[in-house]
Amino acid sequence: MSRIFVWSGGALFVIALAWCAWWYIGPLGASSSGGGWRALLADAGLLTVFAFHHSLFARATVKTRMTRLVPAALERSVYVWTASLLLILVCVCWRPIGGTLSDSRGWLATLHAGVQLFGVGLIARSVAGIDPLELAGIRAQATRGGLQTAGPYGWVRHPLYLGWVIALFGAAHMTADRLDPLLDVHLKGAFHLTRPVW
Fold first, then answer.
1. What 8-state DSSP symbol labels residue 33?
2. Which residue of 27, 38, 146, 189 has the lowest C-beta tally within 10 Å?
3. Cα 131 from Cα 184, distance rounded (Å)
4. CB count, 10 Å around CB of 184?
5. pTM summary value
């Protein structure tokens, strides 16, 4: 039963990422009128919940408390399930803000595509430096004995997030709706608590 939970959580992780990519390329790329400031506040609330979950569950004290509720082998999978469901919730409940901020054409659009490909390459290289099955909560986390500093992790602490930011900011057609999810990365940093929550 636990294997089904773990593997279905990994599948949900892939579905959530694919849905988010489709959402970014499609609905968020459309130039449309939207809800303005009210939509922006609602969307910021969604992103805050998503970011807060990431920061909260990164705390050792929270992980310890989690293992009192679920077996230690399922702790990462519960995290992945929750994060994936929250990401889908953000995509489903998003309220369009509307408006186009920039729309590059010609050689500038090609340059933007190169920037986006660099971001995707950084993501791929970062994932290759860790175990993708571990990231998806399928395989138990290995004890590495310290901070990972190989490859992109030697350049920056969160190369996965940096890759996402580069890929997202690289869009040749930047709408307000495409820009707003970038707050997520900043919110994660803002909510990175230095003291245990409980």
1. B
2. 146
3. 24
4. 22
5. 0.74
- 3-state SS, 139-188, equals CCCCCCCCCCCCHHHHCCCCHHHHHHHHHHHCCCEEEHHHHHHHHHHHHH
Q: Which residues contact 45 (CB under 8 A, 6 or more apart)?
A: none
Q: Note the pLDDT tens digit of each residue in 28-39.
A: 777 666 677 788
Q: Which residue has the tokens 């004995």?
A: 145
Count of beta carbons in the 10 Å neighbourhood of residue 190: 13
> CA-to-CA distance for 134 and 156, rounded, in angstroms?
20
From the number of C-beta atoms within 10 Å of its C-beta (0-12, 13-18, 19+), residue 115 rates as middle
Residue whose pair of structure tokens reads 């995509």 in the numeric block: 91
Give the model confidence (pLDDT) of 100-110 as tens digits.
Answer: 777 889 999 89
Domain extents for the chain? 2-190
CA 111, CA 1: separation in Å to the nearest integer?
49
